[in-house]
Each structure stands twice: as structure tokens, then as C-alpha cells.
Amino acid sequence: MDAQTDLLFEALQYPERLVILAVLLQSESTELELRLKLELDQTVANRALREMRLVGLLRRDRPKGPNRVAFPAATRAFLLAANTLALKIDEQRRRADEEFRERLS
């Protein structure tokens, strides 16, 4: 892997960052709204947002308001596709489990 990919995965290794991304997929928010909604300490939230901005996962969208956090279009498309794939994998796993249980009975 290249250095940029390493930085991307490093930025995603913390659970609070994944939760932030999930919330932002639902709707854009300001940094304050995110902190309040997720009950995150200001230091933790600021660090998480800064790290994700540095690797290109997030950007500040100031024309829409102070400290509004948004996804670049490519990031949003990637996360939506990854979410769709994860849901399909989960559904297939559930079906395989059901079929296995039926064979045992």
C-alpha cells in the first residue's frame, strides 16, 4: 500500500471516527452539532475531524455556515457503496446461517 492509503486506514481505526462518518452520511452537521449529538469531548471531536480532513475524508464547508462538516463527493460515493456492500454481505451471511440451521434440524 502507498503512504496515502496507510494514512486513510490509520484515520479510520478509531470507533468515534466511524460513528462520525455514519452520522454525516445521514446529514451534514456543524462541528458543534456533531459533538453534541455524539456526546464527544471537544478535544476528541476536534482531533478526529482534523485527522479525517488531513486524509481527505472530510472537508469544511464554510459557505454553508461556520464549521460545517461535509464529504467530498468521491468520499460520499465510496462510503455509500461500502455500506451497500456491507449490507449485502450481512444478508448473505444471515441466509447461509438459516440454511445451515435448517440442514441441522
Helix fraction, binned, reads over 70%
Q: List the total number of helices.
A: 5
Mean pLDDT: 85
What is the H/E order? HHEHHEEH
Which fold name is given in CATH as the topology of the largest domain?
Arc Repressor Mutant, subunit A
Main beta-sheet strand count, sense and barrel state = 3 strands, antiparallel
Distance between the termini: 46 Å
Tally of domains:
2
Coarse structural class: mainly alpha
- Determine Rg (CA atoms, Å): 17 Å
Oligomer: single chain
Report strand %.
5-15%
* Strand arrangement, major sheet: 1-3-2
| Strand tally | 3
CATH architecture of the largest domain: Orthogonal Bundle
Instruction: State the low-pLDDT regions, or none.
Output: none
Q: CATH H level of the largest domain: which superfamily?
A: Winged helix-like DNA-binding domain superfamily/Winged helix DNA-binding domain
